[in-house]
Design goal:
With about 120 residues, the protein is mostly helical. The chain has helices spanning about 1-25, 30-45, 50-55, 55-60, 65-80, 85-110.
């Protein structure tokens, strides 16, 4: 049942974002920022963690989950370091995921030898 919940929740998030992209004049970069900020706000008010507990990767893998991860890291760092944690918490909580994306992206570029579009 965990796989089914992850599938439909992740699919619903992606479908809502696709509708937002299709029905508005927002550029994809702005929608991405909106998703990260929404994840931070939903995490701050305590709504997003129960969704992650219910759907697992279906809620934590989309970009809105990245915002929630940033919020959790900032909250922990603020509790530990005070005001300075506001600036360092997001970096430390997401460092592994961002590093993995960069490393795997680089490896994929070596394997598949991408070409520029003309």
């Amino acid at each position: 049942m965990n796989y089914i919940n992850a599938f439909w929740v992740g699919g619903l998030i992606c479908a809502l974002v696709q509708i937002l992209l299709d029905k508005t004049k927002l550029m994809p970069g702005r929608v991405m920022v909106l998703l990260v900020c929404t994840g931070c706000v939903l995490g701050a008010v305590g709504i997003y963690q129960p969704l992650i507990d219910f759907a697992g990767a279906g809620a934590s893998v989309p970009l809105i989950g990245f915002g929630n991860t940033l919020w959790k890291g900032m909250k922990e760092a603020i509790d530990d370091k005070g005001f300075l944690g506001l600036f360092t918490g997001g970096f430390t909580s997401c460092a592994l995921g961002v590093s993995a994306a960069l490393i795997f992206g680089y490896i994929a570029s070596l394997v598949f030898q991408p070409k520029m579009k003309r």
